[in-house]
Amino acid sequence: MQFVINGKATEIEFDARTSLLDLLRDHLDLHGSKKGCNQGACGACTVLVEGERILSCLALAVQYQGQNITTIEGLATDGQLHPLQQAFLEHDGYQCGYCTPGQICSAIGMAAEAKRGMPSHVTRDLAAGLVTLDRDELRERMSGNLCRCGAYNGIVDAITEYVEAQ
Question: Final residue of a domain: which of 71, 93, 109?
Fold first, then answer.
């Protein structure tokens, strides 16, 4: 089966029952995406497929043949951290770091959703077409990504800096 993972064409054979997370970690040695709950409840496994955030532990890899998959390892360019990765460092948006790859991939996908005007549960004006990512909006949109260390203030600050810079 063929994939484009972190900008690189990849062809690999595997059991059709393999999750995307297991394909990345166990078959392609991309260990950035974490297996947290393996039930889609924590967000540690979040990756981007065609720019959309998904929970890779719940996705069968065969569903994403031929699509562009981006993991935390694919965000840096020419040795330079992605701006959101840098913001996480500057704002201490991590403690143990286990959830950080999923938080960052999710935040990139979330920012793109907001830019396209996709509302959330707390969006005040559904007809506005433009979503302002205030702290409440941002927290609601990131609620599927859990941090057991409680680094939420740094995470929100990092994402806010990233979104404001766009």
Answer: 71
Chain centroid to Cα 101, Å, comes to 7
Alpha carbons within 13 angstroms on the beta-carbon side of residue 72 total 27
What is the pTM (predicted TM-score) of this model?
0.95
Amino acid at the residue 106: S
| Cβ atoms of residues 40 and 55 within 8 Å | yes
Tens digit of each residue's pLDDT (9 = 90 or more) over 62-81: 999 999 999 999 999 999 99
Tally of CB atoms within 10 A around 77:
9
Are 49 and 17 within one domain? yes
Tell how strand 68-70 and strand 2-5 pair up.
parallel
In whole angstroms, give the CA distance from residue 87 to residue 118. Answer: 24
